[in-house]
Amino acid sequence: MGSAKKSSAARKARIEEMRRAEQARERRARILTIGAAVVVVGALVAGGVFLVRSQKDDSDSASNDKSAGRFVTGKDGVKKWEGTLARNHVTKSVSYPVTPPVGGDHHPVWMNCNGDVYTKEINNTNAVHSLEHGAVWVTYNSEAAEEDVDALAAKVRKTPYTLMSPVDGQKDPIMLSAWGHQRTVKGADDPAVDTFFAQFVQGQQTPEPGAACTGGLAE
């Protein structure tokens, strides 16, 4: 009888010991689970902060060009940008101080400008890269006469280091732009067209003379 009682007490002791061991394992498992959750949440929070900051940086670079200055109009009617024109390569949109732009941060890939005529609006950041290579950019809006557009297109097609495209946001019907220079012309037969081409196609204003006007982006 005494032996049976001892056996029962020993069994209860073993069961109690097993129960305590199981409870200890459960506590360790809960601690590990909570720790892992804290790590995951911390990583998500850190990632979210990085994303927000990255989006803010993207927004800032997309809305601000580092160029500073203003146009000064010469006696010949050509407006010259007096100040700094940034030349950084960026892959985001850039808000330029003038339309069409005459320089500033731009896309790493230029628009083809070997007498290329585009019938739809092109990306400003690609066109500015073409200006950096010494191209003249002929632009027009919906108020330009069709015959002037056709005549200018014919001139551009036979002139290396030029390109042409519509820009609905510009204030005058027909405008000519080069790096740091711009002017308005009255029409395709305005003598200022030939003068501007002669002066600024691969002119002294070119930051990268001789750089390619082919092998870039086509419409």
Structure, briefly:
The protein has 219 residues and is of the alpha/beta class. It has helices at residues 2-63, 124-132, 146-157, 191-200, and strands spanning 68-73, 79-84, 114-117, 136-140, 162-166, 174-178, 181-184.
Rg, nearest Å: 34 Å
Domain module count: 2
Structural class: alpha/beta
- According to CATH, the fold-level topology of the largest domain is Glutaredoxin
Molecular shape: globular
Q: What order do the SSEs take from the amino end to the carboxyl end, as H and E?
A: HEEEHEHEEEH
What's the level 1 CATH class of the largest domain? Alpha Beta
- Tell me about the largest β-sheet: 7 strands, mixed
> Strands of the biggest beta sheet: in what spatial order?
1-2-7-6-4-5-3
Mean pLDDT: 82
Strand fraction: 15-25%
Uncertain runs: 38-63
* CATH architectural label of the largest domain: 3-Layer(aba) Sandwich
Total number of helices: 4
Give the CA-CA distance, first to last residue. 102 Å
Give me the count of strands. Answer: 7
Report on this model:
The protein has helices at residues 2-63, 124-132, 146-157, 191-200, and strands spanning 68-73, 79-84, 114-117, 136-140, 162-166, 174-178, 181-184. By secondary structure, the chain is α/β, with parallel strands linked by helices. The chain folds into two domains: 1-63; 68-200, Glutaredoxin (3-Layer(aba) Sandwich). A seven-stranded mixed sheet has the order 1-2-7-6-4-5-3. The longest helix has 62 residues, at 2-63. The termini are far apart. The chain crosses the membrane at residues 29-52. This is DUF3105 domain-containing protein. It comes from Streptomyces composti.
